[in-house]
Each structure stands twice: as C-alpha cells, then as structure tokens.
Amino acid sequence: MSARFALVCMTAGINSTEELTLGVVVPFEESRDPNNGLKPLLELVREDMDGINRLILDQAISDVEMIPELAHHLIDSGGKRLRPMLTIAAAKLTGYQGREHVRVAAAVEFMHTATLLHDDVVDESDYRRGKKAARTIWGNQASVLVGDFLLGQAFRMLVEVGSLQVLRILSNAAAVIAEGEVMQLSAAKNLATTEDEYLSIVNAKTAALFLGAAESGAALAERPAEELSALRSYGKNLGIAFQLIDDALDYSGDSKNLGKAVGDDFREGKVTLPVILAFRRGGEDERNFWLRTIGEGKIEDGDLERAVSLISQHDAITATVERARSFGMVARDAMEIFKDSREKQALQDVIGFCIARAH
After folding, report:
1. 290 in a domain, yes or no?
2. CB-based contacts of 82: which residues, under 8 Å, 6+ apart?
3. Average pLDDT by stretches of 10, the chain with 359 residues
4. Number of domains present in the structure of the chain
5. Which domain holds residue 147?
6. Residue 1 lies in a domain
7. What is the pTM of this model?
C-alpha cells in the first residue's frame, strides 16, 4: 500500500523572514483517522499520567529560585509526554503490577526535558513549542545548568526505583543521546553528510530515548530477553520514524501546529534528510544554493521559498515520509510477538499517529 501525499501551499508572496505556512497529509493507514492514533494510548495511561505530572512538579522543586521557574517554563509548555506514556504502556503490556513505572516514566520525561534545554542552546533556537525558548529568557548558561539539574533528578528517581536493569537501560540512553548531540554538532552545515550518517545521528539523538522508554517499562516487569528486545526494536524504529516526520514537517508543516516556525531547520543550518536528498538529487546550481544557505549560513530574502521548492521538486518530502513509513513497519512487526491486547493495539496506533500527525 503506497503512501498518499499532499503538499498544499497556503500562503504565497512572502520572504524568508516571514511565516511560511504549508500543510502535509500523510496517512499511515488509509482506513484509519490519523488524528485518533494517540487516543487509545491516552486512555490507557490517563490515571498514571496524573501521578507522573504530580511527581514531575514535585521533583522540579529547588531552593534555587531560577531552577523551578525555568523548568516549569518548558514542562508546562504543552508537550504530549509521549515518551513517558510509552514507558507506562510497555509496563502494562508486559504485566507489571507495581507502581514504580510512574517514577520511571517521570524520570524519562525529565531526561527528555533536559535534552530540549540543551538542544536549544546548541541549535541557538529562539522558540520551543510556540513559546520563547528558555535560553532567550534566562540565557544559555542557566538553560544548560537547569538541564543538568533535571538529569540529576531523573537519575535520583531511578536509584529510588531500585532496578539495576532499568538504571542500566536509561543511563545508556543518556550517554548515547549525548553522543548524538556531538555527532549532530560535527555534521552541522556539512552537506557531505550521507543518509546513513544522518540516520546514525537520529538513532542516537532521538531514537535512544524512545528505545529506553519502551524497554524500561518491560524491564520493571522482569520479562524475558525476547520481549525486552522486541520493545527495544519498537522504540528505536518508532523514534527514527518520529524524527524523520519532524524533518519533513519543517519544510511542509503548519507552524501553528508545529509549535515552531516552519523553516527553523533551514535557518539554523541543519542538514536533515530532506536537504540531504534534495542536495544529492540536484544539479550544480542547486548544490551551490544549498552550500551558500545551509553550508555558509548566507540566507537572503526568498531563499526559504526556493528551498521548499527544490525539496518539493526532487520529491524529498515524499521520500522522507516513505523512509519513516518503513521504520514504522519495523516497529509494528516488532510488536507481533505479544498477544493481542488493548496495550498492544495502543502502542501500534501510536506508530500511525507519529507518521500521520500534522504537528
């Protein structure tokens, strides 16, 4: 079954400093409404998420006034809490009967929040989820240090859980994420980056925490190796698919739904998969355009529109979505060792949501 793709330009006659609004529709399963993909998971974890949110607020408390103020700025900014929801769902899927999954899930969210603070500093981002990035209000140094505080709180909670296996899984994820950040920094503005190299960055920077979130839920239930391996595969491939769709949406999304301005990756000089594909498929004049804008950061009026046009011309969005669909199918197949259940269906529906989302 082939993907259905529609790219609709809703505004025109704007320059690169103005808002560009585009729409993309890429349903993962034609028979299902992609907007409903997250509902089963939300219903499954609803009660536990209340406990997670309370724990997050409790653990963000500090006598240092700036820490809770800055942490709450990002924690309260409207994220879906997808990663901790995966932890809760995986624990339920594998029959865990205790309550420590709530603490593990909160730790996962703290890890994610810390990476966002660090990302915005490295990327020099001005906005996060439609709000001013913490670094633009409190500065880069405070953002990095509060991110470190949240990582410390995450591992404090994991120690309290008392599972060495869960601690191993998530400490490994933290190390891999840091490696991914360094890899991305090395690849910044480098248009010689290959697709394989880029996917290695995505695997480390984004997929590692999806993997850790899913596997740690099952580790709490002390499930056999094959089930842990299946959830590792599910989380890893879901995370890669999620990031590839993010890459596509930066050149084809709606800024109101994205929580950031369309073209942020372009303005920040990020070499993402749509750019890699358009660069390699284009002629010499087009490659010179990418070298000037992405490579050298010399962006002029109209350059974002040309970038979007070139990406569309070379079907780079369609190709990126197709890659995401492939990783999504690997994630779906990984779940087949589990018996049919409400939990299994919810986790599979998330794959469709991640790929078909319009934000």
Report:
1. yes
2. 350
3. 31 32 36 67 93 88 85 74 96 96 96 90 75 80 90 96 97 96 89 96 96 97 96 98 94 63 86 97 97 96 96 96 96 97 96 77
4. 1
5. 6-356
6. no
7. 0.86
